[in-house]
Amino acid sequence: MTQDTIVSSWNDFDPLRHVIVGRADHCCVPPSEPAVDDKVPVDSKMKGMWGPRPLETVEAANEQLDGFAKLLESRGIRVDRPTPIQWNQAVSTPDFRTFSMFGCMPPRDVLLTVGNEILSAAMSFRCRYFEYLAYWPLMNQYFREDPNFRWEQAPRPRLTDESYRPNYGMGKHAMTIEERLEKVAAKEFVTTEVEPMFDAADVMRMGKDLFVQHGLTTNRTAMEWMQRHFPNHRVHAVNFPGDPYPIHIDATFVPLRPGLCINNPHRKMPEEQRKIFAKNDWEIVDAAMPAHDNPPPLCYSSTWLSMNCLVLDHKTVCVEASEVHQMEQMDKLGMEVIPVPLRDAYAFGGGIHCCTADVYREGTCEDYFP
Ligand code: ABU
């Protein structure tokens, strides 16, 4: 690593030195579109509503995000923030049109850091097509500061109607949870395989190995693209059959340090996929139950944001301050726990891990699964 190195991160647990924390400014609830519709449960109050989020919720979320940024800075971690744009604008390409964007929370969905590269994801939500623009000033700055930084963009998806299964889970007779789970078990999701589509938050980085969740936001074609793009890595497809809305791996399967992961007890990794961990002496522990029965209002995510934590180093972890069971479990697992109030930001796209994106962690690319 040279003195000029700004960007380097190979996993989610080595000592964190530089991170991006999202902002809630101008965030919107997006209008109906195929990929979004499938993420919003049929009985959700969000069904059918769209437009700018209420100002008081934006202010409350920003207060907590700013507080989190300050806390990280107080521990000597450099924190950068995105530059929000006016998200309440229509998006139009030759292939589709939608009437508003989403926001610059959460960065983890958009930016995938692998070593000295930050890759903007090929996201399947039309409303998130231009979200990378909020990070463009930072990417441009890193490009100028760090001669080895690889500023990358995955192929821009076309997101025509061909990219989605028509009326997946929708229509007059919306799918029941049982029917959804059957589709998940059959690995049949709203996205088709006509082009690579993925969210960066579906990728769990563990040195030479990238574990990628196949679900609503990431397809198999994206995994094939990733394997060719990262030829020195091993890309593993993982599925979590107990999750009726499989989106993003970081509230399902979370490494805390080399040799230890927590796994959502409702979304267990199948035996076949666990073998690689067992063979290499990794322990997989069931995560603690969430402290809340329901997510906050206007929230896309599940209550399992409880386990969506940010590991600062092998012994220190940030957990949302109201998640008492998860904090207690982390403590028992030998971690120093830093409680972070962030529940007011959940509705904007996620929790403690989601609202960040790695820029620099110490350490190198290890082979944990030889
Ligand atoms: N962005 C993480 C959401 C995961 C979940 O809803 O469980």
Q: What report would you give on this structure?
A:
The protein has 370 residues and is an alpha/beta fold. It has one domain: 5-stranded Propeller (L-arginine/glycine Amidinotransferase, Chain A). It has eight helices and 19 strands. The protein has helices spanning 34-39, 55-74, 107-110, 136-145, 177-185, 220-229, 271-279, 324-332, and strands at 16-21, 28-29, 51-52, 78-80, 91-92, 97-98, 111-114, 117-120, 150-153, 203-206, 209-213, 234-238, 253-257, 260-263, 283-286, 310-313, 316-320, 336-340, 356-361. The strands form seven sheets. It has a three-stranded mixed β-sheet, with helices on one face. A three-stranded mixed β-sheet has the order 7-8-9. The protein is globular, with a radius of gyration of 19 Å. The two termini are 24 Å apart. 46% of the residues are buried. The model has no long low-confidence stretch (mean pLDDT 95). Bound molecules: gamma-amino-butanoic acid. Gamma-amino-butanoic acid (ABU) binds next to loops. Residues 201, 247-248, 250-251, 301-302, 304, 350, 354 line the site of gamma-amino-butanoic acid (ABU).
